[in-house]
Amino acid sequence: MADIRHYRNGIQVNPRDFDKAKVTIDWKGKKEAAAITIDSIQLVAKEGKALRDRILSGLSGGVGFFEGEPYRIEVGDVGNPLGVFNGFLDFSKGVNFIDECDVECSVTREQGTDWLNDVADGFSYRFLESEGIITDADFEEVPYVINYIPDGTQLLILAISTFVLSKELYEQIEKLAENIGILQDALTPVVGVGVGAGAVVVTAADVGNIIYAALRVIIQIVYIVAIVIAIIDLVEQIIEQLMPPKRFHKGMTVKKLFEKGCEYLNLTLKSSLLDNIDKSSNKYVLIPNKGHRGGEKPTGADNTWRETGVPSLGDVFDTFGGVIRTFKSVFNADFQIVNGEFIFERRDYFFNNASYVIPDTFIDQTKLIDKNTFNTDELVANYNINYAFDLQDQNTLDNQEGRIFQAQLTPKVTINPNLTNLTGLKEISIPYSLPIRKDKLTVIEEVVKAIAIAADFLTGQLGQSSSLSGKIDARIGALHLSSHFISLPKIVCLSGQSLKVNQRDIFAARKLWDDFHFINSFKEINGVHNQYWLYQEQKIPFCFADFVSLLDTNKVKTVNGEDAEIESIEWNVWEDFALINYRVNRLYDDNFNIEYL
């Protein structure tokens, strides 16, 4: 038994009966991370009295129950320990005052995965924004355009008005030509013969006629300009009805949501997975619920309202915990916290970093054999990945491309089909909807664009082009919505100021399977599968250094180099051994076909 030392807030203490304690690590029963249970620390005498006073300090101006006390356990030589457990005494759970000088409380690992479960749901992204941790610089502006059936009556009135004004413009231009002709006649001098001796030929200008003709031309031009302005206004209204101008909704990249959660918890994000989906050429942006028109203050909002891109109250992404849970499912990922780094990767990534090797011992020491079972109860014959609908956006109802994927297992060989028992359903329900990118102009938009080009020409003749046709072209590359409002978060892939082409290919449920979820299949795909041999209650040598090496991961290796996962450990601290339940990733059946639907 190696030397073990305990430090409360940097001062060495001597807890009662720690050498008889048992430590368990349970991964199988975990919700989000392993449950690490250390038999409660019990301090007595002066140490117990000091701890009691510290816990009750909230009555006298101190931090009280709801701030822990640093607690460190070292094993090995002083100054050069074999292993260190950094945690804290958690007074918010099960403090027991046995008497005035005898206190018992639990220990939680500092910035461990069990600690993360407790705190990741304890704050919202709206809170981070209020604290200045999230600022406007953290938001992405996603362009969107509306496609919906306009008010038919109003559109008809606008069309008729445009026709009438266009006809009037044509007629007035003809009249202008006539008036210019009259002005030219008026400007032509009148030739005559002078009177009296020595009569000569003289010319004279009809000033009255010139003024009258010039006024007619000027008035005609002013009237034509007014008609042109009215036509431009009507064309703008038609464009507004048929194709409202591009607006913007704010959101945040998936990676930024992770970064800000980590920043608040004093962690550093490390994730090649998230790095790959957050580049200048492609940013996965999550747009939260929206109850207003992009860039426009909602009706009834006070002057403190401002556009924001943080998740809304009620979104599954409202907290960091919600973000972690959602994208663990979407990307078939897992996380570890190692030396202040929050590592988020596809779940099999952590096998590559396994440092612990399960010793080569036998479960049945008497017969020198290994008893084992198999994970047949984890078979999933029907694996579904599906995105949610946004009932506020008709596009998600009309376009089903890439929204649903199914991988179906069937037997390659069968004798009696009635006895086939390939069962099990796994459903990955993604709580946000897919985008639709506007890739081209519709027939109606092309017609309106022709009208807009004509309007641009008219205003160009007046010295200032209206650029109406450019506004129509600018709609390409924007997110297509049927309403300004979003009742369900939506994800887009943003490249520069526009959505990247092939949005449905980028986010397709099938692509999620090909990139992340295929490793869950019992059918071997590219040398990877989800079949395991299970081993229970193997007794192995186990020390404090081993315990420390397994705090962050249950991904290990066997002596034969096979990937394995520890499900639980019960460690007897005093006797330096542990009972371990684990599984080895090894094929035991290859009678499968897989069909993609």
Report what the structure shows:
With about 600 residues, the chain is of the alpha+beta class. It folds into four domains: about 5-110, no CATH class; about 135-145 and about 245-355 and about 380-435 and about 505-520, no CATH class; about 150-240 and about 440-475, Helix Hairpins (Orthogonal Bundle); about 525-595, no CATH class. The strands form six sheets. Strands 1, 2, 5, 6, 7, 8 and 9 form a seven-stranded antiparallel beta sheet that branches. Strands 3, 4, 19, 26, 27, 28 and 29 form a seven-stranded antiparallel beta sheet that branches. A hairpin with a 2-residue loop joins strand 8 and strand 9. Helix 4 (about 150-185) packs antiparallel against helix 5 and helix 5 packs antiparallel against helix 10 (about 445-460).
Give a brief outline of the structure.
This protein has 14 helices and 30 strands. By secondary structure, it is of the alpha+beta class.
